[in-house]
Write a structure and sequence with these properties.
- The protein has 243 residues and is α/β, with parallel strands linked by helices.
- It has a single domain (3-221), classed as Rossmann fold (3-Layer(aba) Sandwich).
- Helices cover 40% and strands 19% of the residues.
- It contains nine helices and seven strands; from the N terminus they run H-H-H-H-E-H-E-H-E-E-H-E-H-E-E-H.
- The protein has a seven-stranded mixed beta sheet, with helices on both faces.
- Strand 2, helix 6 and strand 3 (123-127) form a beta-alpha-beta unit.
- Helix 1 (3-19) packs parallel to helix 3, helix 2 crosses helix 3 and helix 2 runs antiparallel to helix 6 (105-118).
- The longest helix is centred in the first third of the chain and has 17 residues, at 3-19.
- The termini are far apart.
């Protein structure tokens, strides 16, 4: 066994201990890791296993520090890309049903391979834009998003998919006061609370990592979701200049 494989196994074992994961979850996470590193069509620039454990798996699983994530029953990961954080969380939470939502056909094909490689049986892949996925509206108690879009835009994508009482969790790096103010303005229009901001430390060298946690407290108005592309072109959180 190579030194690199030993280091990777040790890192996975550390994650398992931290989050109380059993052997089946570790086996599935290892399979996901190996595919991400080896597949030339994986939608990520990281092809070093040690970095991928930290930047992908550990960074995804850090949401398990939140009780609302551990308690989820029906979850959707929007803009799922390489299955992060959605597939990693689905592996860790086998009693929850996860849907990985991705609009790019090439990434959807990778997600199908990743689900098969991991052996996860609680995961579906939907190849569609979040705004176009009418079958997901109002069904979820958890929506996750990592490296997708500005905070206010992600909130608009996610809010219609949540049931009242559900939670949106968004991964972010260093805090940005302007983006946070925009997120609050958007949340007010979508039936969401302003995001609570949780500093997290997914691995030893991690810096400036935060989870933004919204709760859905009322139904999202009937005008949402807007047509595909509208959220990016006319973000709800944009400050309107006085005329």
């Amino acid at each position: 066994m190579s030194h690199r494989r030993v280091d990777t196994d040790a890192a996975l074992a550390s994650l398992a201990e931290r989050y109380g994961l059993g052997v089946p979850a570790v086996v599935s996470l290892r399979a996901l890791l190996e595919l991400i590193v080896a597949d030339p069509h994986a939608p990520t620039a990281i092809n070093d296993a040690a970095r991928a454990v930290d930047d992908h798996l550990a960074d995804s699983l850090v949401a398990l520090d939140l009780d609302v994530v551990r308690g989820a029953h029906v979850a959707a990961d929007i803009g799922s890309g390489a299955g992060l954080p959605g597939l990693a969380l689905a592996i860790a939470l086998p009693a929850a049903d996860f849907t990985l939502v991705e609009s790019a056909a090439r990434k959807c094909a990778f997600l199908e391979r990743a689900v098969a490689a991991s052996g996860a049986t609680n995961v579906d892949v939907v190849c569609a834009r979040a705004e176009s996925w009418t079958g997901g509206i109002g069904r979820h108690d958890l929506v996750t998003a990592r490296a997708l879009a500005p905070l206010d835009v992600v909130a608009e994508y996610a809010a219609p998919l949540l049931r009242v009482g559900g939670t949106l969790v968004v991964w972010r790096g260093q805090r940005d006061p302007a983006a946070e103010a925009a997120a609050e303005r958007a949340a007010e229009q979508l039936g969401l609370t302003p995001p609570g901001i949780r500093p997290v430390h997914p691995y030893r060298a991690a810096e400036h990592r935060h989870l933004y946690v919204y709760s859905k407290v009322m139904e999202t108005p009937s005008g949402f979701p807007r047509r595909p592309g509208a959220a990016l072109k006319r973000p709800l959180g944009a400050r309107i200049s006085p005329t």
